[in-house]
Design goal:
Distance between the termini: 40 Å
Number of helices: 1
Strand order of the largest sheet: 1-2-3
Largest sheet: 3 strands, antiparallel
Length: 63
């Protein structure tokens, strides 16, 4: 099932988005953006990056 991007106000004329799973679980919260055009560009960037992004294990190696 598809999640959704929810655009909300972040105070002082700022906006942000939340990515929520189909069951309502919050998956990610964006930083604040200055306007709607910028927040929608941020959503587009996340959608494109998530579709082609690599999973990288950033934990320190166990020795």
């Amino acid at each position: 099932m598809a999640g959704k991007f929810v655009i909300e106000t972040a105070g002082a004329g700022q906006y942000r988005f939340r990515l929520t799973a189909d069951d309502g679980t919050v998956v990610a919260v964006s930083p604040s953006f200055a306007n709607i055009k910028a927040v929608t560009a941020g959503i587009t960037a996340v959608r494109e990056s998530a579709a082609t992004g690599f999973v990288v294990d950033g934990r320190p190696s166990l020795r």
